[in-house]
UniProtKB/TrEMBL annotation:
Keywords: DNA-binding, Transcription, Transcription regulation. Residues 8-65 form the HTH lysR-type domain. It comes from the Bacteria. This is LysR substrate-binding domain-containing protein.
Length: 312
C-alpha cells in the first residue's frame, strides 16, 4: 500500500479506463463533459504514474500499449466495486429472500405473542429461518446486539440501555394469582387483597434476569420501601402457574400472561393492593441494523403481532 501514489483518485482511474476503451482523448472529454486539455493533462499524469505511454499511435488512430491493455480490467473492477459501495439499499422482498432472524425474549410473555410473531414471519418470508433465544442473567444482550448475534430483543426492563433503539409493543396490567382452593383464597370472598396480606403471603418470583436487577415488581416495591415475602425463585417462568396448583404460593405477573392459564388451571386472581405501573414490553435493536430493510420488516412483523393481543 505504501507504493501507491499519494494523490491517486477515483476520477483518474475512470479517465484511465475510458481512454483505454475509447482510444481517443476528444471522445473521453465529451463523455466526461470536460475540456480536452484537462483529459490530455490527466493522460500525462497517468503516464508518469505507470511509467508507460498507455496509448500510442497506430495505423487507424491511438491504440493501447500492452501494459495499457493489462490495466483495463483492473481499472473496471475498481470502478465496479466502488459503485457497489454506494448503491442504494434495495427493498427486502420477504416472500423471495431467505434470512435468519435471531430474536431473544423472556418466557413470561403472553402465550400467543411469540407464536403470532413466528406465524407472521413464516407467512411473510417462508424461505427465512427464525431462531428464538432465551434471556437470562448470563446473557449479555447488549453485546450480542452490537455484534450482530441477535437482531432483536423483546423485554420489559424499567431502564433499557439508552444507546439502543426502542419501540413499544404492548402493556400488561399487573395482578396476583394463587390456587383457588388455597387457605387464603377460601377465606377471602372478594377479589380484593389487603396490603399487609399481599406483602406477607408466600410469593414465587422469577429468577434474576440481569445482575443486580430482580424485575419490575421488586424494583417498584423497593422504591416504596417495601418488600414482599419471596420464598421460591424459578428460572422456568412458564412452570410457575403449575407450581401454584400444588402450593400456597402467590404469583404477581401480567394479566395477559395469566389469561391462558386461568382457562385450564384452578386459579384465582386478585387486584393487587398497590398501584403497580403496567408491565411495558418493547423491542430493542442496535444502530447497526436500524436502516437495514430486512430488519425494518422484522420489526414491523413483531409490532403487528403485538397489535393482535386483545386484553380480556
Amino acid at each position: 500500500m505504501s507504493s501507491l501514489p499519494q494523490h491517486l483518485d477515483l476520477h483518474l482511474i475512470r479517465i484511465l479506463y475510458l481512454l483505454l476503451v475509447e482510444k481517443n482523448v476528444s471522445r473521453v472529454a465529451l463523455k466526461l463533459n470536460q475540456p480536452q486539455p484537462s483529459i490530455s493533462a490527466s493522460l500525462r499524469k497517468l503516464r508518469e504514474l505507470t511509467g508507460d505511454p498507455l496509448l500510442v499511435r497506430g495505423a487507424r488512430g491511438m491504440v493501447p500499449t500492452q501494459h495499457g491493455e493489462s490495466l483495463m480490467q483492473p481499472a473496471k473492477r475498481i470502478l465496479d466495486q466502488t459503485e457497489s459501495l454506494f448503491v442504494k439499499k434495495t427493498p427486502f422482498v420477504a416472500q423471495e429472500e431467505a434470512r435468519t432472524f435471531h430474536i431473544a425474549a423472556p418466557d413470561y410473555l403472553d402465550s400467543q405473542f411469540l407464536p403470532n410473531v413466528v406465524a407472521l414471519l413464516r407467512r411473510g418470508s417462508p424461505k427465512s429461518r427464525v431462531v428464538i433465544h432465551s434471556l437470562g442473567a448470563g446473557i449479555d444482550h447488549v453485546r450480542l446486539l452490537s455484534d450482530g448475534e441477535l437482531d432483536l430483543v423483546i423485554a420489559n426492563w424499567d431502564e433499557p440501555p439508552a444507546h439502543l433503539h426502542i419501540s413499544k409493543l404492548f402493556e400488561d396490567p399487573i395482578i396476583c394469582t394463587m390456587r383457588a382452593e388455597s387457605a387464603y383464597a377460601k377465606r377471602t370472598a372478594s377479589d380484593a387483597m389487603t396490603l399487609e396480606d399481599y406483602l406477607s403471603l408466600p410469593h414465587v418470583a422469577p429468577s434474576q434476569m440481569m445482575p443486580g436487577y430482580h424485575g419490575v415488581i421488586d424494583a417498584f416495591l423497593e422504591k416504596q420501601n417495601m418488600q414482599r415475602n419471596v420464598v421460591v425463585e424459578s428460572a422456568y417462568f412458564g412452570l410457575i402457574p403449575y407450581m401454584l396448583t400444588q402450593t400456597d404460593l402467590v404469583l404477581t405477573t401480567g394479566r395477559q400472561f395469566m389469561r391462558f392459564y386461568e382457562k385450564t388451571l384452578p386459579l384465582k386472581s386478585y387486584t393487587v393492593p398497590l398501584k403497580f405501573p403496567p408491565m411495558r414490553f418493547y423491542q430493542l435493536w442496535h444502530q447497526r441494523v436500524h436502516q437495514a430493510p430486512e430488519h425494518k420488516w422484522l420489526r414491523d412483523q413483531v409490532s403487528e403481532a403485538a397489535k393482535t393481543l386483545i386484553l380480556k
